[in-house]
Amino acid sequence: MSKAVIVIPARYGSSRLPGKPLLDIVGKPMIQHVYERALQVAGVAEVWVATDDPRVEQAVQAFGGKAIMTRNDHESGTDRLVEVARSDA
């Protein structure tokens, strides 16, 4: 049986809300809240955060999550997910 993996695209440099993944929400960065909810999905073996920013990578690692660094030239979160899917992550 295949394992299910959730990959969360997290871009720090958003034009509408820069730094969104690291915004503090009730004492935790937003990306941690999303990560923790993803872990609750039935049948999920792993959760990864795909980002192009070392600040997001460090925040994810600080709470024990797995972050995958991606290129910074993606036009969308979907493009970032495709990079991860094609990698050996």
TrEMBL record:
<keyword id="KW-0448">Lipopolysaccharide biosynthesis</keyword>
<dbReference type="GO" id="GO:0005829">
    <property type="term" value="C:cytosol"/>
</dbReference>
<protein>
    <recommendedName>
        <fullName>3-deoxy-manno-octulosonate cytidylyltransferase</fullName>
    </recommendedName>
</protein>
<dbReference type="InterPro" id="IPR003329">
    <property type="entry name" value="Cytidylyl_trans"/>
</dbReference>
<dbReference type="GO" id="GO:0009103">
    <property type="term" value="P:lipopolysaccharide biosynthetic process"/>
</dbReference>
<dbReference type="InterPro" id="IPR029044">
    <property type="entry name" value="Nucleotide-diphossugar_trans"/>
</dbReference>
<keyword id="KW-0808">Transferase</keyword>
<dbReference type="GO" id="GO:0008690">
    <property type="term" value="F:3-deoxy-manno-octulosonate cytidylyltransferase activity"/>
</dbReference>
<keyword id="KW-0548">Nucleotidyltransferase</keyword>
<dbReference type="Pfam" id="PF02348">
    <property type="entry name" value="CTP_transf_3"/>
</dbReference>
